[in-house]
Amino acid sequence: RGLKKYFDVTGGVFSKKVGEVKAVDDVSFTVKEGEVLGIVGESGCGKSTTGKALLRLIEPTAGSVFFKGQDITLLSDEEMRKTRRDMQIIFQDPYASLNPRHKIAKILSEPLIVHGIGDSKERMKIVKEILEIVGLPGDNAAKYPHQFSGGQRQRIGIARALIVNPKLVICDEPVSALDVSIQSQILNLMEDLKDKFGLTYVFIAHDLSVVKHISDRVGVMYLGRMVELTENESLYGEPLHPYTRSLLSAVPDPDPDRKQERVILKGDVPSPSNPPNGCAFHTRCPDCMDICKEVRPSFNEVLVNHFVACHLYEEDGKPVPPEQFKATK
Ligand code: SF4
Ligand code: MG
């Protein structure tokens, strides 16, 4: 609720604070047990920072994170360590996230040791089991990370996250660093594991096509803000935010009967250290109105379970359903 993460920007010989980057700027959403919530946006939009702040791997500047009803931003380090058994993360770059000097057995037993699970013999058994579960023979435990391909390393990254039997897994672009041919194998594996262990995923990606099949709901972020959040079918079928529309129009649609208008965005993403006033998207938005340059739109539920932050669907600060907007335009 109201999650913010601001980073100081320092400069000069004395490294004085000269500004701040609002990496995550007042973001609120809910993740339902058992669902896959996709979070999508271009690089620098704050999606990874949001994911890490959910686990307090990055401390939020403001806001709350409720896990099973409890605000975990209030927990002590020791309490947080225990809670993290239920909340794990899979990183984007499987190579950078595995210590090259450690054998897989050591890498995978570390989380077990941290959470006091089993003696060394039991831990070895669990390590071999989890390797088999992610599709690697158990005897791989004796190898080093460099002996595996990118896809295999991401299987190990997944094994490390799942070995403590978590409830929630933050997947921070887990397939972005992989060859396209390997991506779908890993996505399928992650879907199978989700069903098998009853997991909940927050699945972060920079591309709407990656989360299309795996997500139940999708949130779209732009410059530190959530601009649209809804169920999968509505997001892909009836996107409301002009930014989502532009992202979707860049994804080729195989259905020849569906007319696709290509929306070409002007300009680049503005610097997050100096975001535009009002709606952060107004410098690139094809529908920009005067109010957009001054007033930040609030994040409203304009249709059932369909949230959007855009003045097109707002009048006098109140949400206006899209049909009504179309009728008046
Ligand atoms: Fe475009 Fe205005 Fe909506 Fe922002 S608020 S997305 S500038 S129409
Ligand atoms: Mg990232």
TrEMBL record:
SMART domains: AAA. The keyword Ion transport does not apply. The keyword ATP-binding applies. SUPFAM superfamilies: P-loop containing nucleoside triphosphate hydrolases (SSF52540). CDD domains: ABC_NikE_OppD_transporters (cd03257). Gene3D superfamilies: P-loop containing nucleotide triphosphate hydrolases. Pfam families: ABC_tran (PF00005), oligo_HPY (PF08352). Keywords: ATP-binding, Nucleotide-binding, Transport. One of its GO terms (biological process) is transmembrane transport. It comes from the Bacteria. GO terms for molecular function: ATP binding; ATP hydrolysis activity. Residues 1-248 form the ABC transporter domain. Belongs to the ABC transporter superfamily. This is Oligopeptide transport ATP-binding protein AppF/OppF. The gene is appF-4.
